[in-house]
Amino acid sequence: MPRRRQSAAPRAVPFEVVEDLDHEPVTPGGPAGPAGDGEPPTSRGDDERGRDGQDEGPPGAGDPPSGRRTVRWTPWAAGAAVLALVVGGLAIGGKIEERRTAARLVASKGGVLPFTGPPRELWSLDTGDHVWMPFGGMLLRRDAAGTSETVAAVDVLTGQEVWQTAVGPQAFCGRDVYWSAFTPDEGPLLCLSGTPDAMVVSVLGADGQVTGSREVGAVDEASGYAVGPGSTVVHVRRDGPVGPPVGPLELYDENGDATFVEAPGGREVVVTLEDALSGDVLWENRVPFVAPTQAWECQVLDDGIEAALMLDQVTSRTTGQVVTVDGCGIDAAFDADGTRLDDPVIRDDEVLPLTPGTVSRFDPSTMRSVVLDRTGSALWEVTGQILRPSASDGTSEDIVVVGTLSGLAAFHPDGRQLWQVSTSGSTLHVHTSVAMVVDDGANGLTAIDPATGRTLWTVPGEDSVYPFGAATDGAQMVVLSRTADGSARSVGYDLATGEVLWTGTDTQDVGMVGYRGALLQLSEKRVSRVG
């Protein structure tokens, strides 16, 4: 029977090195000489007592010939001093380690500050009639109607409003990463606001005050703006002549009923990266229109009911240093310097940041992943999809996990394979230096040793209970599941042993997500921090 692993609770024991004590004679009066050389006389407690507090006898008894009396450290006093320094070092070192751990968790995707027991509400705010946007450890709020020009920021750890400022109507702040909106963001805070006839970009400082703004121009169905990497905005627009007809495409209405329509041709897209305030063009690229084979990328529901084609629609989003452009017949990804990172020949390949200097490109048609540097050069490749964790404590950056056709494999970021196992998993819930937890394909969980690939523990799945997210503080893992009736359930597990630490109450129509150290509970009407 395998040995039971100890809890993953932090066990770091910091200490301080204590230098050898100086055994040179210490004479009363200090560097200036004995009392009386310009210094007031000392009391008997200072002049005639040893370090152990005992009388040493009359002056001169046992003193060296100079007449100066030597005060010596007794062994137990020296030991007490050393012990005091070590204990003080432990306390200070422990506080420093706690702060470092907290900073690491706050900076990690899905990282939450440590807590024990079922989550309890720490603060709560109404979300009705507001649009909420996460950025930099804050929830940014504006009115849903978009008539107010004010944006307010709420600290996710305290629930307190930290600033509010006038930006403009219909403001959207931060970067649009809709599939992973609570990924920790970097760079300055930029907001786009205004009307379709006159869009404005504003740059906000740490205190929320507008430090600069610029009118960027008009937008319509065939053009748009989005916040780019750093202090930039991405401008996308259709351009050029309409290409040859696409041919028949199958449209589906809200009931799933299909209708064939003849689709006309489309136009290419011009992608421009501009400095947010100066408007200087940093680079510009053109993306050719490629006739779609399916209508979903060109289809909208007009008034939410009738299916229609929008061949000119185009959007952009930024994740880290990768700028992605999507639209009808358009699919491209660029580095922040303008290098094209996707393969123009492959439809629907996915490009995402991997490390600060690399990205991964996944082709779903061949199940092949390629790791590229930021110039677009291939560094290494593997058959399988690189799995990105829902949550991490920031201690696992040196291992890349791949779901292969035969199981799981781990690689160093430079492409060196570390191990390969037959354990399967298509979702990586949590990845830390203690364990990485994947799905088992049957709603259950499997924890794997990141160093060896050895299975640490398993939790069988439950019928009609579907895990969909996770958070971690490095010692425990919070798994978020959806039940058959739509309720949300949270369970805390010890990462090292798989022991169930607590089970939360099922809650209807509520989701949870770890963001910037806070475990947030989200519903249609309220947002709260629990922990």
UniProtKB/TrEMBL annotation:
InterPro entries in the record: PQQ_rpt_dom (IPR002372), Quino_amine_DH_bsu (IPR011044), WD40/YVTN_repeat-like_dom_sf (IPR015943)
Regions of compositional bias (Basic and acidic residues) in chain numbering: 44-54
Lineage of producing organism: Bacteria, Bacillati, Actinomycetota, Actinomycetes, Micrococcales
Name by which UniProt lists this protein: PQQ-binding-like beta-propeller repeat protein
Listed Gene3D superfamilies: YVTN repeat-like/Quinoprotein amine dehydrogenase
Cross-referenced SUPFAM superfamilies: YVTN repeat-like/Quinoprotein amine dehydrogenase
Domain Pyrrolo-quinoline quinone repeat: 371-504
A Pfam short name: PQQ_2
Organism: Oerskovia douganii
PANTHER family on file: CELL SURFACE PROTEIN, OUTER MEMBRANE PROTEIN ASSEMBLY FACTOR BAMB
Region of interest (Disordered), residue spans: 1-71
